[in-house]
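Hi R.,

Here's the chain you asked about this morning:
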Amino acid sequence: NILAYHWYRGERIKNSQLIASYEVDRQVTITGPAHSGREIIYPNGSLLFQKVNQNDTGYYTLSIIYNDLQTESVIKQLYVYPPVAKPIIEASNTTGTEHGVTVVLKCLTNDTGVAISWFFNGQSLLLTERMELSQDNGTLTIEPVRREDA
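And the predicted structure, written out as tokens:
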């Protein structure tokens, strides 16, 4: 049986780095000096970060204390990626398109290592035989374009 869970910021168990503790029998949460006000510890020992940001990147240590006072610890690393910039969509033949015209849409971004997905009317785009995606998904070609593509 588990007596308590303790979460620490960093790779060591230090009182100054305590984020939060949960005492199972009393169902009590205690916050520590490293608590930012954005963390919630749950009765199962999990720790939730709210409004996560890049400053949360780092190592975290969970210490579990059992009723026989034996302890078990695990260290995990959390990496928070920087926000992705809003991409630019570049389109060819956008004015007065008519049946038979080819339209090329390009998704332009300076971010690296991002996956590009295309949506139509709020849903993931289902490609038809008239549509083709580039290998990196950055360019969508529609040939020929039709009114229902608008």
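The longest strand covers residues 58-66.

Let me know if you need anything else.
M.
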